[in-house]
Amino acid sequence: MRIEDKGNINNFENVKDVQKKEEVKKQQAPKQLGINEQDGDTINISNEAYATAKRLEQLKTMPDVREEKVSTLKSEINSGTYNVTGKDVAEKIVNSAINDTF
Questions:
Q1: Cβ(67)–Cβ(74) under 8 Å?
Q2: pLDDT of residue 86
Q3: Domain that holds residue 19
């Protein structure tokens, strides 16, 4: 058997070279972007997001009720020494209404 047209073989080799180059580019792309595929998925967060997440974790560890303040108020009420002015009550009502509106 004799092959006369060697041009088609060269074209096949060119296609093969192009495919190899594209595969190499795909493998190098994550490295160029600073992504290490072995580590899995990665994210970058801003300093503000990090600080917010840290504050949220701190809030989660805080108790829902400030026991010390509650016990102090209970003892003042039971002993009759708890005194609140009408002005204080009015301020709390107005502030609460403003906060609920916004």
A1: no
A2: 93
A3: 7-36
pTM above 0.70, yes or no: no
Q: Return all residues near 9 (Cβ < 8 A) that are at least 6 apart.
A: 3
* Cα-Cα end-to-end distance for the chain: 88
Rounded Cα–Cα distance for residues 97 and 61 (Å) = 29
| DSSP letter string, 29-83 | HHHHTT--GGG-------HHHHHHHHHHHHHHHS-SS-HHHHHHHHHHHHHT---
Q: How far is CA 48 from the centre of its chain?
A: 10
Examine the pLDDT at 33 and tell me if it is beyond 60.
Answer: no
Residue 2 in any domain: the answer is no
Residue 35 and residue 42 in contact, taking contact as beta carbons nearer than 8 Å? yes
The domain tally of the chain equals 2
